[in-house]
Amino acid sequence: MERIKIYGSAISGNCLKVKWTADLLGITYDWIETDILKGETRTETFLALSPAGQIPIVVLEDGRVLEQSCAIMLYLAEQSGSNLVPSDPFEKATMISWLFWEQNFHESSIAVRRFRKRFARLSDDDIDPTLLTRGNASLSLMENHLAAQDYFGGTRLGLPDIALVAYTRMAGEGGYALADYPAVQAWIARVEAALGIPSYTEEQA
Q1: pTM of the predicted model, to two decimals?
Q2: DSSP for 5-27?
Q3: 51 and 104 together in one domain
Q4: Domain enclosing residue 104, as ranges
Q5: Do the domain assignments include residue 118?
Q6: What is the pLDDT of residues 33-64, one digit of tens each?
Q7: Domain closes at, from 23, 54, 79
Q8: What does DSSP say about strands 29-33 and 4-8: parallel, antiparallel, or unpaired?
Q9: Model pLDDT for residues 63-110, shown as the tens digit of each residue
Q10: Do residues 21 and 31 touch, judged by C-beta distance below 8 A?
Q11: Do residues 194 and 157 lie in contact, with contact meaning Cβ atoms separated by under 8 Å?
């Protein structure tokens, strides 16, 4: 596959899941660290690439720009001919449904609460209490699903695992008690090992 540029931030789970997918697939890329806390996604230069002013984005060799983390992951996997994308239409649609769920339900609570606690430095009293409720509901759904299988696709690592592990492993920073979800914790360790990345606690040490 062609060499690409990935604009992302090391503190962002959405960006890391794109990086991990590229690494797993052996894709050659240039990582361009983009600091959202310093407003680097709001500059004229960046907005010319991404009018939405969001990361991650991928710039292909021909200059085309692809946005939205899950769409990027799917593109990279399909362009690489990877078995991360099922050939069966139903299994592929099921995989994509998990990617939609990750963005619409999981990320929108767990990632948002983590950002507000860790980076915006808000107290629990100043954070929308429904974020904690919704995030725990997502973790409970994951716990029930993973009690019966090792990965979201069944027996092997798939794109939903990469997408979901990014912010799940960081959930403690958002005030979520991962110890209450042992199947989720065991799954996090499996996915980290499969991706060849250190555990989040080790990474933060």
Answers
A1: 0.94
A2: EEEE-TT-HHHHHHHHHHHHHT-
A3: no
A4: 89-204
A5: yes
A6: 999 999 999 999 999 999 999 999 999 999 99
A7: 79
A8: parallel
A9: 999 999 999 999 999 999 888 999 999 999 999 999 999 999 999 999
A10: no
A11: yes
